[in-house]
Design a protein that fits this description.
By secondary structure, the protein is an alpha+beta fold. The protein folds into 2 domains: 197 residues, Ribosomal Protein S5, domain 2 (2-Layer Sandwich), CATH 3.30.230; 174 residues, 2-Layer Sandwich (Alpha-Beta Plaits), CATH 3.30.70. The chain contains 10 helices and 13 strands. It has a 6-stranded mixed β-sheet with strand order 5-4-6-3-1-13, covered by helices on one side. It is globular. The protein binds alpha-D-galactopyranose (GLA).
Amino acid sequence: MERCETAPGKANLETTVWAVAPGRINLIGEHIDYLGGKVMPAAIDRHIVIEATPIFEDFCEVTTDFGGEERKGRIEFSDLRPRVAELEKWLNYFIGILHFTSEEGSRLSGFSARISSDLPPGAGLSSSAALETAFSLVLDSIAGVERTVLQRARLCQRAEHEFAGVPCGIMDQIAVGAGRAGTALCLDCDKEEWSEISLPSSWALLIADTGVQHSLGDGEYRKRREQCDRVLQILEADSFLEFTQEDLERNRDALGDLLFRRARHAVSEMERVDLFAEALEKQDAKSAGHYLRASHESLRDDYEVSCAELDALVDSAYEFGSERGLIGSRMTGGGFGGSTISLVEQDSAALLQEYLRKNYSEKFGRELNCFITRLVDGASVGPVQPPLVTL
Ligand code: GLA
């Protein structure tokens, strides 16, 4: 199950290295990775790319040129404390990776890195996990260190928890590292094991980015996790994997309305992932679409992590309808903004794209960033510039 990434090979301190890490969508299994549930993410053809040149110093320099502005920062290896000044907080992703890499005993070697991206930040497509993963690959490649996907995912997750302040699960970091072209991962977050599952070749995947920047660091994500911990305390259980819907019904009064609904989302979403996987294997578009819709409704009503823009996009997709080729649609990622995904028959993808764009600009008065995506391989590092068409 677990495998090594593209091996960095022997350290070559003279040569420029290129690391490339994709974003991810999640087909289903939302807000249950941190509860040990199964999830179904896939790497997409939007990437963070880092070009890094060794500089034989005890610091690294980072220049980013995405989001319309160039930013430069310098991180001394002798000072790997998290930055607190607002303008410097973006460096914390890198500092976190440097900190945990050195804590594990790896020597840090200086380099100068230029980072570019066609992965929109704040769009629920895991730009931060991609950034962490690519940066970690650069660091290891220059130092000649090898690490498995899972080891790297855990390191990046720690950086996210302790330096970026987001108590995320492990889904994004594994998806970014372990993605396989044309497939989604069936990832068991309890066992931290995964297998690959193919999408029918006649189905296309459409991503619609609301442009509402979600910020998982702002507290609501953490609140959801705390509410789930509270459910476990009240029910004196160790894991959500122990519950059925009936258990929750029996304990409805003890939980109260809010915690009951949070728990109902988690338990029902865990069931839906298995059912969706079965539907996918049978290429049963009708059932697959049904579970995607139910997942969105549960996130909207029980877990309350959707927003008006996401709901409108999902409603528009279902208005477009299965008779015109829609399979299903839902929000993807942490929510509070970000993106929706729609599965649609290949021949109808361009029509659905137009339909969503038109409805969205009429309703919200701004353009929708909507694109058909391919599922791609996970992150890698090497001595040559990767041939990415979208950058
Ligand atoms: C964010 C987190 C993930 C996961 C999703 C919701 O993307 O980083 O760990 O919890 O939200 O499914």
